[in-house]
Design a protein that fits this description.
Structural class: mainly alpha
Number of domains: 3
Number of strands: 2
Number of helices: 12
């Protein structure tokens, strides 16, 4: 009965193809009215039973195939409409959050599993600010980053600071792999600036000095933020800007200090966002960061100049107190002459200088006169 039918007409390409083939086997010995064959064909089950009882087997299979194809096409066209309808439905029927208990590890409240917020990320940031206040939440350091491939990428101080959106001590180097472990995570550095009596107190974390380190540390910071404060997308915006600009390649490509400059800029952005949180202002978006970069770069123009060593000209030594190329006194051979006796003529480093002529003899292949008279005697 089905020998002349191809795969398309019989519905073998349908997700319910196995059911269709099973129904064919049954239909060779019994009619659909006896076995209620339509119950094995999902696309026709919504039709009235009285109608299905009257449809022959071959027509039932063809109808199932046609309806399946139509359902797929309609589904593809209606996805956007369905998403829009879902959003409206949630607005009309908001989720009720009942009081619960959550210890952020073993006891997890079901409210953590409702869908994400669809308002703007900046609006969500400001709503969080209104709820949490200025200091953020209690810090933890036992999040599972191992399953994400970032295990061991966050220093204890990094975990401490990332929970506080107003922290001015959140720095890229806190997520730099060489700084994880050892003594550097818990020590401080006290120093006195050159030419000043001011005392600087900081940490002894290593700065990020290569581009791969910048990428790795920034990605680790983003994953740590998603674990600590899932609603805080400020680091994601920073990552987005860096990726879209190829880490500021148009301004820094070929610059040997590229990684150092990027690390300084990232720390600057972190500080700006901390200040914005403190002042109830939204975080800097990826679009904002393009303008921030231009302004920040303009104030540090000297750092962006890449010197071409091939174009640098050697500086000739004109100071007689600089270390000479030989032990002949150049002041003795100058028009002013040397005011010292030949027994006392020395460089500041203590090298004794001779009062002899430094005139290059013609045809001498670089040989100097070296007689006891100044070079002006050669006319």
């Amino acid at each position: 009965m089905f020998a002349d039918s191809d795969n398309t007409s019989t519905g073998l390409n349908d997700p319910a193809g196995d059911q269709v083939r099973q129904a064919k086997q049954f239909s060779t010995t019994s009619c659909s009215q006896d076995l209620q064959l339509w119950k094995l064909l999902p696309a026709v089950q919504h039709l009235p039973e009285e109608l299905l009882m009257k449809i022959p087997d071959f027509a039932l299979f063809q109808l199932n195939t046609a309806l399946s194809k139509q359902s797929k096409m309609t589904g593809k066209m209606q996805i956007s409409e369905r998403l829009s309808a879902n959003a409206k439905d949630i607005q009309l029927n908001p989720v009720k959050i009942l009081p619960g208990v959550d210890d952020r590890k073993e006891i997890i409240d079901p409210c953590r599993f409702i869908g994400g917020a669809s308002c703007s990320n900046q609006a969500l940031w400001l709503k969080a600010r209104a709820v949490l206040g200025a200091k953020g939440v209690v810090a933890l350091g036992n999040y599972d980053l191992d399953s994400l491939g970032y295990g061991g990428s966050v220093t204890p101080k990094g975990w401490m600071e990332i929970h506080n959106p107003s922290s001015c001590e959140l720095k890229l180097r806190l997520f730099h792999l060489p700084n994880v472990g050892g003594h550097s995570a818990s020590t401080t550095k006290v120093s006195v600036e050159d030419g000043s009596s001011a005392i600087c107190i900081g940490d002894d974390f290593r700065e990020v000095s290569d581009l791969d380190g910048v990428r790795s540390a920034l990605n680790a910071m983003r994953e740590a933020m998603q674990s600590a404060l899932p609603w805080n997308r400020s680091i994601s915006a920073l990552c987005g800007y860096m990726q879209n600009s190829n880490y500021c390649a148009s301004d820094l490509l070929g610059n040997p200090k590229r990684a150092v400059i990027l690390a300084e800029f990232i720390d600057y952005v972190l500080g700006r966002n901390a200040l914005n949180w403190e002042n109830n202002q939204p975080f800097l978006t990826a679009d904002d960061l393009s303008h921030v970069w231009a302004t920040w770069k303009g104030k540090r123009a000297g750092s962006f100049v890449v010197k071409d060593k091939r174009s640098e000209k050697p500086h000739h030594q004109t100071n007689p107190y600089q270390r000479p190329k030989d032990d002949i006194c150049r002041r003795y051979n100058s028009p002013q002459g040397c005011s010292l006796k030949k027994e006392d003529c020395k460089t500041p480093a203590g090298t004794k200088l001779r009062h002899v002529c430094n005139y290059f003899l013609p045809g001498g292949k670089g040989k100097k006169c070296e007689k006891e008279h100044p070079r002006m005697d050669h006319k």
